[in-house]
Write a structure and sequence with these properties.
Rossmann fold, five-stranded antiparallel sheet, binds S-adenosylmethionine
């Protein structure tokens, strides 16, 4: 990706004012980076996700998988169908999409099931939980021909869902705490205002013991890293709370989440000394969350070990973990293989790897276009 033009800073002044005020009202004149990121992205009037009708997509700042191709939603739909089959096709099966963006994935899933698996389509209840009011309005418009319902988190009661909670690029949009190792101690990175009215980072004691507990959970001993002084990264505590909430609401079924990220040992690695935080503005990536405030997206990669461990503690069983590319490739191969067989109307003695190769280029076409 090209380097961004960081010279034109068009921060949202109203949002900056609100953040400065939040800082000045806090006892130590500093807020955690997580608080800062939450305001920048989700302040209900001025946050990035509140003010940008076209932030996802070709005209926006970044593209997500459903924006590349219908295959993504269609293969997920096949996956949900398989879950329904495993449960022996119950009369109630709920799909809960969390953080649905522009509603494109929902449209792909519902459109495909309506065309190809009407029995399942007529069974499912499709719910969306969406934090951004602007995106929620766009979803409602896009999906007005389907029976979709919108819920807030606390409107879904304990043990009420049989089906699947799923998300694409939700967890990397949660706000994260930033930390640095100083004098052999984990210290938190806070945001404060300097005398010129700019936001600057300072370090202090961690704001919550949950940050230290997190590393016990994922079994990472940061202080054993070579040359650890100055090592920085992020901790996504919201992701742990999220797993607890899902487990509480799920009576029977699955949680499926797709995101950028790694297992903990790769995430917290001595060579990745600056963490994984990234910002996106008009398809350019940069690593300055204090630039173009409220006009660019901020994300941090997901530590899948943390999701797995917290899920297990909360009563979920880990079924699997794979790369998105492999999931899609396998799904496309399977789907096109059956399509090919039915077109030919006979059982063919085909070399699987040949189909695999052919399908691979197919995928590249659909995904790299
Ligand atoms: C990076 S976008 C991904 C959108 C969509 N899933 C896609 O693939 O295009 C993140 C989405 O999660 C939503 N979101 C973030 N935090 C949320 C939360 N706590 N609850 C519900 N939605 C949330 C955002 O408003 C946005 O719709």
């Amino acid at each position: 990706m090209n380097q961004p033009q960081l010279t034109i800073n068009n921060s949202n002044e109203n949002l900056c004012e609100i953040i400065h005020q939040r800082i000045s009202e806090s006892p130590k004149k500093q807020i955690t980076f997580a608080e800062y990121m939450d305001l920048v992205l989700y302040h209900p009037q001025h946050g990035y996700y509140a003010t940008h009708p076209v932030n996802i997509g070709k005209q926006g700042d970044f593209l997500t998988s459903p924006h590349w191709s219908n295959d993504f939603g269609e293969l997920l739909a096949e996956q949900f169908l398989q879950m329904w089959d495993i449960f022996q096709r119950p009369n109630n099966f709920t799909l809960v999409e969390m953080g649905a963006g522009k509603g494109i994935l929902a449209e792909q899933i519902l459109g495909y099931l309506q065309q190809t698996h009407l029995d399942f389509f007529q069974t499912i209840e499709y719910l969306i939980i969406e934090k951004s009011e602007v995106l929620k309005a766009e979803q409602k418009q896009r999906l007005n021909s389907y029976q979709v319902k919108w819920f807030e988190w606390d409107e879904i009661s304990h043990n009420s869902i049989t089906g699947c909670f799923f998300s694409n690029e939700l967890v990397d949009a949660f706000s994260v705490h930033k930390f640095i190792i100083e004098n052999e101690e984990i210290r938190e990175i806070y945001v404060t205002s300097d005398s010129d009215g700019k936001f600057v980072e300072i370090t202090d004691k961690i704001s919550t013991p949950e940050i230290a507990e997190y590393f016990k959970l994922v079994d990472i001993d940061l202080l054993s890293f070579p040359n650890v002084e100055g090592y920085q990264s992020e901790v996504n505590l919201q992701a742990l709370d999220w797993m607890k909430i899902l487990s509480d609401k799920l009576l029977k079924g699955y949680v499926l989440t797709i995101d950028y990220g790694y297992q903990a040992a790769r995430y917290y690695n001595p060579v990745r000394r600056e963490g994984t935080l990234q910002c996106y503005y008009q398809h350019h990536r940069n690593n300055d969350p204090y630039w173009n405030i409220g006009r660019q997206d901020i994300t941090a990669h997901v530590d899948f070990t943390a999701l797995e461990k917290q899920g297990n503690l909360s009563g979920l069983e880990t079924l699997g973990f794979t790369q998105q590319g492999l999931f899609l490739r396998r799904g496309l191969v399977q789907r096109n293989f059956f399509l090919f067989l039915s077109l030919k109307g006979e059982v063919l003695n085909l070399n699987f790897s040949v189909i695999w190769k052919a399908m691979e280029s197919n995928i590249y076409r659909s995904f790299k276009k």
